[in-house]
Fold:
Amino acid sequence: MPKLVRRGIEVEEQFTWVDEINPAEGLPTGAIWVPLVSWLNHHAACLAHSAPVGVYLQPEEDPALLLPTLQQVSAIAVCFPAFHDGRGYSTARLLRERYGYTGELRAVGDIGQDQAYYLAQVGFDSFAPHDETRVAGVLRGLQDFSDGYQSTWARPLPYFLRRHEKP
Amino acid sequence: MYQYDEFDRRVVRERVAQFRDQTRRFLAGELSEDEFRVLRLQNGLYIQRHAPMLRVAIPYGVLSSRQLRELAGIARDFDRGYGHFTTRQNIQFNWVELPKVPDILERLAEVDLHAIQTSGNCIRNTTTDVFAGVAADEFVDPRPWCEIIRQWSTLHPEFAFLPRKFKIAVAGSAQDRAATFVHDIGLHMQRNAAGEIGFKVIVGGGLGRTPMIGDVVREFLPAPHLLTYLDAVLRVYNRFGRRDNKYKARIKILVKAMTVAAFAAKVEEEWAHLKDGPATLTAEEIQRVAQAFVVPQYETFTQPDAAFQTALTEVPAFARWVKRNTHLHKQQGYRAAILSLKATGQAPGDLDADRMEKVAEWAQQWSFGEIRVSHEQNLVLPHVAERDLFTLWQAADAVGLAHPNAGLLTDIICCPGGDFCSLANAKSIPVAEAIQHRFADLDYLFDLGDIALNISGCMNACGHHHVGNIGVLGVDKNGEEWYQITLGGHQGPDASLGKVIGPSFARAAMPDVIEKIIQVYVERREPEERFLDTFRRIGIDVFKERVYAKAS
Structure:
């Protein structure tokens, strides 16, 4: 099983990744990740599935499409085909801050130590680098900064509103 | 000046540590060239023709004497004893060694400087009017707002991997000396009828391959909403800006593709969700930052300084320098003094360590320890008493920093060009030098008055050639360096992009060509008419005919 970081610790992937589903043939057994389009098109089949179903989004996909069924997904993943494509950061903030999603939100793909901190700030709580050897780096990268100026999902109050708090 | 507190320092220190580790992993082979490129660029580190180049941020162009001394020390210890001030109010070191960059960053951090986001596809250093806070014609001091933007943009987690670079400029006076119409976002400080501070928001300007004048997307943004609105603009850009073609990835392309009205509507829709959220600025925070920009303890001068007046009449060279190189000040009896880095024979914007230290010393003595970097690539001492100007002038003149050419034809804005930059198609520094040699007669230059001549060595337009009254662009023609000329560019509230005059010229022909253009101006100008105004009145054809006329 591939390794990943989930809520700060290294774990093994429990879900199977599925490129598309065909309800006539039945869904693969066990927990599965399905693309957004499958989730939307075969929603009943996904709900009827005996194990958890997570939905993954490509960078260009609008997270608003998940809004009506947000409470039904077991987890959401956002794909990063290239680490310098930053669209997924906005996707995460929308899901968390605007749509109120509270479940697992996973960053998947070309991510590693140097993205981990930013990813965690915008709302990701699990990280699955395509290259498993980066898992240890992700855990280190989460510690790169102890604080920041901005209002983020992880730290809603910007520093200027916390300036007078005692550390 | 804004003073870092422990929090600001901690952010910079943690970034230095992060970059030290990234450099280590790259040198150990744990990070690929491609991976490291994006990371090092976000810290201002380029690989150039001869060596890596490190660009250090000078937030909105404001430096203390202490910081400038440290920059001199770095130039000496890690470079070849000089630095290059850029058109974005930063400084570049052209000869650093990659493994030593983390040490340089550590030295910078000791004086509250850094190289964060001085390159890469992220929010860059915010720029402003070099005379911010002192200009007589200013209605709101833009510096506190620049600092608020600096903090917001520093390591913003959502916007570290934008489609392309992103530049913000803020202007606080009607003159707009910050070229706000050619930035990704330009902010004009305003006061509404009720006297409240806010911003006119201009989006989608830019130079480079597809130069554009920005469009107003919001006439008045009340100041407390600055950051939530910026978040909205950046989010729309981050999500919808093109990523398939780097030449079409700037926000200006998105704005044009969507139309300004549709883009503005999209931003408003996004902002409706963010408005009044936690990033809304509080009166307390605005006040805290504004207080950092305290008015110095100016002396009160009730009448003009007699010795200054005498020197003006008796020393023509001094009078000339005062006329060209000092700027009117809010405070009676004070001036902002421009130290020209454009003496003939020196690369525009370059300054050696010894003279950096001299400038730091003069600033301490006569300008409350403060120095500004202008986007015209000169240094400015923002608060000099008229009484002290003569002594300053003598000291500057002794080391070649009192060239009285601010705003004149030889005050050339110029990128490093093919001598240093690996992106350049052509050299720019030798062209600047040849033109400066041709126009060496100061009386003549004075008579010509304000003419902005800007040179870029390639389409990326770091030399801002599109907004030069005379713009020069280096182009590659079958492996040879040629130069295309544009006329009529201008930065300011009535910004315009230069028009191409015709086919390009060989480098050797450039001084002659510029001379012909100037001749047309001299023949056709009306009394007191600037080059730009003559051009706007008579049009490009007259110039074209002269420049391309067959020798008879």
